[in-house]
Give the backbone structure.
Amino acid sequence: MAYPIENKLVIGIASSALFDLSESHRVYLEEGEDGYRSYQEAHAGTVLARGVAFPFIRRFLAINRHFRKQSPVEVVLLSRNSPETGLRVMHAIAHYGLDISRAAFLTGSAPYTYLPAFNAALFLSANEDDVRKALAAGQPAGLVLPAPNSEQLDDAGDAELRIAFDFDGVLADDESESVFKRNNDVAEFHAHERRNAGVPHQPGPLANLFRQLHVMQRFETLLARRRPGYRKLLRVAIITARNAPSHERVVTTLKSWGVSAHETFFLGGMDKARVLGIFKPHIFFDDQLSHLQAPGLSTPMVHVPFGIANLITTASDVQP
């Protein structure tokens, strides 16, 4: 291994996010643990279909092909399966040629507790309880939502990796969102942001992931200078419902962290689907389900159930 794992950008992923385990989960619910074990053993030779996060993970791992000396990224499988029932997942990983060699099989225990051991900047799972507990413990996590279409769009000819983030409650803390939620008052929110325009936000749950992706952007910039014609793999966007004048604090925050995005959208409450449909991210992180449930989108969606937006059920038409 070129780099110790503490120097890598590591993503921990549950098998439920990487592959389609809907049928396996149905068996577990209907027949219990013994029935689930028998089902997996009987279908050990049947390759699992690609899951919601598969296109993202495949492209993420491809980064190492361009930085063979450093191999700066890694994916670790964190599974509630036992090693025996997890064999089918490992077979699928090998079938698809994914460079995933590290795994933890926890036989029913919560995987998120081992995120620090693997230096993970993100944990992706379709298990909502695991994700909420991870966030409550201060660990970076996201809930992969069911795909809008049964087959995941994964154009093998498209090598670019596009990642999109909401800002409040994802990259930043929920301080400003808390101000808005107090009275659902946009004017009050903007007044607060004007007063604090020069005060950076505290980091949110995925701030460290964003910082590490920025390092990868710098790697690519340096490589492009040395290798004319190099086509960058990584493209990162921030898509937020903020608009002027509250945009200034976003800029202040990112500048204080020493990071930036390739594209930043201040939509002022406009439907994010209008931008997502053009940017076409391979994964989009947002703390509000209302932003992730627009009809007609095929974007792989990840809910980050963090902060006040996930404590209050009343929605507003315009949210920061």
